[in-house]
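HOLO CASE FILE
Compound: iron/sulfur cluster
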Amino acid sequence: MRATTFLRLKLREAAFISKALLSTNHVVLAHIIPMRRCNLACGYCNEYDHDSKPVPLELMKQRLDKLAELGTSVVTISGGELHAGSNQAPE
Ligand code: SF4
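Model generated. Tokens follow.
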């Protein structure tokens, strides 16, 4: 990794941590699981099942808008496989 890239990443990390410490009225990190359905069963994963219905796309958009409204710094997405038995393709 180039020194300038490393420095830029460290500055970004410091800004993220500073914002998290200085502003306690915003969400720092939100982890969303829009779908738990998955055809696989990886040993390290507990984010899947064969029964849960996916969160409807419009509801998920509303939730993401709310996270944006709350000033969420980081949103991570995980869960099952988006294409496992669903006709709800990501946009
Ligand atoms: S969601 Fe991903 S990690 Fe989990 S069982 Fe399915 S393929 Fe594996």
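CASE NOTES: Residues 38, 40-42, 45, 47-48, 80-81 surround iron/sulfur cluster (CB under 6 Å). The beta strands are 29-32, 74-77.
CLOSED: yes
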